[in-house]
Design brief:
Elements (H helix, E strand, L loop, with lengths): L1 H21 L5 H30 L1 H21 L4 H9 L7
Helix pairs in contact: 2-3
Length: 99
């Protein structure tokens, strides 16, 4: 609950600012709509997956599996040295200039 109140607005602002800085103005509407579709769709799928897991295997295995998944994602995030997004975006958007 506290994440929705305090962290989500900060994260949304940071993500939007980053996209506005990188994406050319003529593509911003398309990129933002695809980003929102993927982000909101992933939230819905995550809630559905947890609901099914709770029903099929119970609370404790679901919590342990969720914790393990989050630990793996945290380790992958810390292992990322950055710069990969900019390299990939240059291939997607020809003529992309970095500020």
């Amino acid at each position: 609950m506290w994440r929705a109140a305090f962290v989500a607005p900060i994260d949304d602002t940071e993500q939007l600012s980053y996209r506005l800085r990188l994406i050319p103005e003529r593509l911003q509407g398309r990129v933002n709509s695809v980003y929102r579709l993927a982000a909101d769709g992933a939230k819905s799928l995550g809630v559905a997956a947890v609901g099914f897991a709770l029903e099929w295997v119970g609370a404790v295995p679901t919590i342990l599996a969720s914790a393990a998944l989050l630990a793996v994602l945290a380790a992958l995030t810390m292992a990322n040295r950055g710069g990969g997004v900019r390299v990939r975006m240059a291939w997607v958007i020809p003529g992309l200039r970095y500020p």
